[in-house]
Design brief:
By secondary structure, the chain is an all-beta fold. The chain is 0% helix and 49% strand.
Length: 107
């Protein structure tokens, strides 16, 4: 039985990713889980293992006041996964740390 240091929460919230020096790319599906130490999600681009990552999780869906959590960390694990789609369109499951964060409100 696998034991984790922190509890993971299975949330279905939108997530977008910006890697150091790259533009923001919208991920087509929500992340899989989150804990106080990091996040697990899937994206279509192969990441730089060990590289820095910045990602934004949208916490509210209320159009009147959007609250985002801007997170910085590094990619600690990545693996190719089969999502039942065309093999020519690969997907990668990414585990990233959550080292720093800040709340960002859209006005």
């Amino acid at each position: 039985m696998e034991q984790r240091r922190t509890r993971r929460f299975q949330l279905q919230l939108p997530l977008s990713v910006t890697r150091s020096g790259a533009t923001t790319c919208r991920i087509g599906w929500p992340h899989e889980n989150i804990s106080s130490n990091g996040v697990l999600f899937t994206m279509e681009r192969e990441p730089d293992l060990g590289g820095p990552i910045e990602y934004v999780i949208t916490l509210t869906r209320d159009e009147a006041q959007v609250v985002n959590l801007r997170c910085m960390g590094k990619i600690v694990r990545a693996g190719r996964v089969n999502l039942g789609r065309d093999e020519a369109l690969p997907a990668y499951q990414i585990a990233a740390t959550l080292e720093r964060y800040e709340f960002v409100r859209d006005h």
